[in-house]
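Researcher: Good morning. I'm working through a list of sequences from a screen, and I'd like to move beyond sequence-only analysis. For each chain I'm collecting a predicted structure so we can compare shapes side by side. This is the next one on the list. No need for commentary yet; just the structure.
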Amino acid sequence: MTGDDRQLVCAWVDAARDTSIAGELEAVYAGVRADIESRSPVCWASGRCCNFDKTGHLLYVTGLEAAYTLTRLASDEMISSADVAAAREAGGCPFQKLNLCGVHTIKPLGCRTFFCDRSSTEWQHALTERSLDQIKLLHERFSLPYRYGEWRQMLSMITGAWPTSGV
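Model: Good morning. Structure tokens for this chain:
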């Protein structure tokens, strides 16, 4: 990990722990939840959304979102870079527990807006883009470095900064 990457990670983790910044991110998530609830998409709890290789999609997140998830894990739920590497090798998410999301309440935007229900595809994209714009504005308001990357890559980057003690 480069020094620049470590600085990015530190900025994201500090921001995720800041109650005002986290509160604004949670407000974006609450808006997403309300929009989704009004549409009532079907979730079959099949776990397909977490099995990226089999479904042919990748999850992208901001560094702040990845840090938000990691900083809210209980100590017995912490993951390591090795856990992320194993999930990548298996083609899925390190937080998938059987067919369920192990971080459901603290998951990133892309997880919140993705549904296997094919009738949801039209509005999913628009909701994701609109909400991502809000998250970008949050970065700007708080002068946070912005990076958008693949979920497991961002998790690896953050867990790599704290290889033994966790976030």
